[in-house]
Write a structure and sequence with these properties.
The strands form 2 sheets. Strands 2, 4, 5, 6, 9, 10 and 11 form a 7-stranded mixed sheet that branches. Strands 1-3-8-7 form a 4-stranded antiparallel sheet, with no helix packed on it. By secondary structure, the protein is mainly beta. The chain is 0% helix and 48% strand. The chain starts with a strand and ends with a strand.
Length: 126
């Protein structure tokens, strides 16, 4: 049973930074894809970023390119999302999700990921 636990959310001022963590248990991240998704109130869940375990390929939605960085630590079985220059539109609940099909990573489509964490709130406000 794959379990994912997110942490690192919080309240930050515009222009600030946060680092989210996604700790996985019950499965290795070496041959898998882990994605970060977010959902704002009244909006659909959207893909933010994804990383493949076997070769470390990364993918980002256009709105976060140049500001967010996804990394993986195989020793810790954890995936991180470093978020810089946060802005109010980034406010959402952030989820990490897991799939064994690495090819799905590029599409950043929530329906392709079968295992989900409980989410962590990120609020960007002055």
């Amino acid at each position: 049973q794959v379990q994912l636990v997110e942490s690192g959310g919080g309240l930050v001022q515009p222009g600030g930074s946060l680092r989210l963590s996604c700790a996985a248990s019950g499965a290795s991240l070496d041959i898998s894809a882990v994605g970060w998704f977010r959902q704002a109130p009244g909006k659909e869940r959207e893909g933010v970023s994804c990383i493949t375990g076997s070769d470390g390929k990364t993918y980002y939605t256009d709105s976060v390119k140049g500001r967010f960085t996804i990394t993986g630590d195989s020793a810790e079985n954890t995936v991180y999302l470093q978020m810089n220059n946060l802005q109010p539109p980034d406010t959402a609940v952030y989820f990490c999700a897991y799939t064994v099909v690495e090819g799905m990573c590029a599409f950043l489509n929530p329906v392709d990921f079968g295992y989900w964490g409980q989410g962590t709130q990120v609020t960007v406000s002055s």
